[in-house]
Amino acid sequence: MGYTAYPQDEAKRLGYNNLMYPNEHFSPETAQELYSMYFDELQYCTEAGFDGVMINEHHNNPLCMMPSVNVIGSVLASRTKQGKIVFLGNVLPIHENPLRIAEEIAMIDILSGGRVVCGFVRGIGQEAWPPTPTRSTTRERFDEAHNVIVDAWTKPGPFRHEGKHYHYRVVNPWVMPLQKPHPPIWIPGVASPESVIWAAKHQYPYVALAPPLQLLSDIYQLYQNTAEADGWSPTPQHRGYAVRVNVADTDEKAYEEGKNFYWQLGTSFGVTPNHWLAPPGYLTRAASTGPREQARRAVQTAVPGGPVLPYDDAQETYQIVTGNPDTVIKKMKHLIDIIDPGYVIFWGREGPMSHDVAVRSIDLMTQEVIPALREYEAQREE
């Protein structure tokens, strides 16, 4: 749900378009029109043939007008009648009361008829800037907040929680999720080894957020190794992949429409100074110097704050997939062969893409691409 109406030239002059970009450029009236369009598209996805819709949360950034994924999810619980509502997800470290998150998600799970898939995220670096005490403790706050939420859903109350960051004399939420023991939990990320390992140790699906193609096998090998060391074997249902996709009637048209993924000064997340993206204490030494991070930087991937990756290079590394239905099916089969994911998330709309273009892509996906991929079995090389 990008806010596309801010002055691009001013952002280029400043050299950034988030965190410190003046919010005087925000128009509530324009946002109201955009929200209406986005909700119409998400509702149409559930009616046209998608298994569900994914929503996310970001702060201080025109990329995303969803500073509360739970508010957006509650609207979708009312507007849609079928399909999963996937939260990817609540930014746990910035919250001072994770028990409220547990209550809100439980409410939405009930209101939706048990359609919530719950994702938890640590957030991108710039989201740790406003609440300054959290920058060096985001991972431990994430871990403890997760524990508070899961305990609230699964342990009979009342009970007491005394942790390092959160203290509750009484944990006894009255509203509990419809799904038992709780809604499915997915963990999204780009390439951080700690996040991959954490997801594997909790046996949660790890959803790779459009990393370069050459990093995929390495990411899921780390997941596999961690799981096997803990005595269990992952299945495809533990692997997910989010990929930017635009489908049009011709390859040429899709190629041009795919450039909408580059609307924020060259990458989907805009331009962010490195010290905003990775404030002191946000990345561990292992994460900042590890092979995955080095490889990510080497290809100048289109991730938050990354350098501008040439559009054709983004196509080469499968960070953006465009084409007519046959072309997209072929490309997606190649991706499926590499990781055999149980879940594929189509990041199908971005930036100034028109409503008509988005809807046509939805139609081609649901009528041609998705049916072909449902029938396809991965041809993985062992």
Explain what this protein looks like in three dimensions.
By secondary structure, this protein is α/β, with parallel strands linked by helices. The chain contains 14 helices and 10 strands. The chain has helices at residues 8-14, 28-48, 69-79, 98-111, 138-154, 193-201, 213-229, 251-257, 274-277, 285-289, 291-298, 311-316, 325-339, 355-374, and strands spanning 52-55, 84-91, 116-121, 159-162, 167-171, 185-189, 206-209, 239-247, 320-323, 343-347. The strands form 2 sheets. Strands 1, 2, 3, 6, 7, 8, 9 and 10 form an 8-stranded parallel beta sheet that branches. It has a two-stranded antiparallel ribbon with strand order 4-5. Helix 4 links the parallel strand 2 and strand 3 (116-121). The protein is globular, with a radius of gyration of 20 Å. The model is unreliable at 298-306 (pLDDT under 50). Keywords: Monooxygenase, Oxidoreductase. Residues 45-335 form the Luciferase-like domain. GO terms for molecular function: monooxygenase activity; oxidoreductase activity, acting on paired donors, with incorporation or reduction of molecular oxygen. InterPro entries: Bact_Lucif_Oxidored (IPR050766), Luciferase-like_dom (IPR011251), Luciferase-like_sf (IPR036661).
List keywords for this structure.
alpha/beta, eight-stranded parallel β-sheet, 14 helices
Could you state the order of secondary-structure elements as H and E?
HHEHEHEHEEEHEHEHHHHHEHEH
Our measurement of the CA-to-CA distance between the termini, rounded to an integer number of angstroms, reads 39 Å
In one word, what is the shape?
globular
Relative strand content: 5-15%
- Unreliable segments of 5+ consecutive residues: 298-306
Q: Rounded to an integer, what's the Rg over CA atoms?
A: 20 Å
Helix % is 40-55%
Find the structural class using helix and strand composition: alpha/beta
Largest β sheet strand count, sense and barrel closure: 8 strands, parallel
* Averaged pLDDT: 89
- Number of helices, where a helix is a run of at least 4 consecutive DSSP H or I residues: 14
Number of strands: 10
